[in-house]
Write a structure and sequence with these properties.
The chain is 48% helix and 17% strand. The radius of gyration is 20 Å and the shape is globular. It starts with a strand and ends with a strand.
């Protein structure tokens, strides 16, 4: 039995919960069920309908109060506690049927994905249960227009991709709040834009480093960026199509043909 999971990751504030809400609502419009589970022990409220919530097992507030941790140490403890009590997660996931699609709204602490083994171990365990797992890294559109922030975001994404060892898609969020043409120009610039922008402000000794980093972005990152405008259904569908392809969703589904009733479908025999 194959089921599908997206780890929705990225720094705090990039729109992970909004992404999950958007995909869930798009699924309702297109008659496709997309579940969302909260995996962030620090979450306070949701705009989506959570299938389950890790705070039922452990919350950041509990960890900080009981052990005196700060926010960062508390989040690491919570995720380690989740992995130590992995049977709780397995019981929750057993409620889903074959071919179900689940988005995990993950914490915004980037260390969990870039160099700590917790999320990779979780992905490996879920794969052993029959899940196909994908990481979706979100980057704020406003960061794309600032060369230093864009390079930093790309390096973090590359670090997460190498650490998690999962199929990986990069999504630029909040494109409805930025100049899309400028973003597209940056993504099509093959590093030249970043090099030129950084060269204007960088000491001579750092210009070679700027060119090397831009080359890494060209070679590994740009080709996989997809822009998300939550006000555009075609943009949402494009992002979902990219993630479906990366995770091989739909390859084993039975084709459907329309019935006479409007919006009613049946499996083809």
């Amino acid at each position: 039995m194959v089921r599908f999971v997206q780890f929705v990751i990225g720094p705090a504030g990039v729109g992970k919960s909004s992404y999950c809400k958007t995909m869930q609502e798009h699924g309702k419009v297109t008659k496709r069920t997309i579940h969302v589970a909260n995996l962030d022990p620090a979450a306070e409220q949701f705009e989506y309908e959570p299938a389950f919530d890790v705070r039922e097992l452990i919350s950041l507030e509990d960890a900080m109060e009981e052990f005196g941790y700060g926010p960062n140490g508390g989040l690491v403890y919570c995720m380690e506690y989740l992995f130590q009590n992995i049977d709780w997660l397995r019981e929750e996931l057993e409620n889903f049927a074959e071919d179900d699609y689940i988005l995990f709204d993950c914490p915004g602490q980037i260390e969990l994905y870039s160099h700590l083994p917790i999320m990779r171990d979780l992905a490996i365990t879920m794969s052993s249960w029959g899940f196909r797992v994908l990481s979706v890294y979100l980057l704020d559109a406003l960061f794309v227009l600032e060369p230093i922030k864009f390079i930093s975001g790309c390096m973090l994404s590359l670090s997460c991709m190498l650490q998690l060892e999962l199929p990986h898609v990069n999504v630029i969020t909040k494109c409805d709040m930025a100049d899309k043409e400028q973003i597209e120009a940056v993504l099509d610039s093959e590093g030249a834009w970043m090099v030129n922008a950084l060269d204007k402000h960088s000491p001579e000794r750092l210009k070679q480093l700027s060119r090397a980093l831009s080359s890494v972005v060209d070679d590994y990152m740009i080709v996989s960026f997809v822009m998300l405008d939550v006000t555009d259904e075609n943009s949402i569908e494009d992002v979902l199509a990219r993630t479906d392809h990366a995770i091989q969703y739909g390859e084993d589904l039975e084709p459907q043909i329309p019935r006479d009733d409007e919006n009613e479908y049946t499996e083809e025999t």
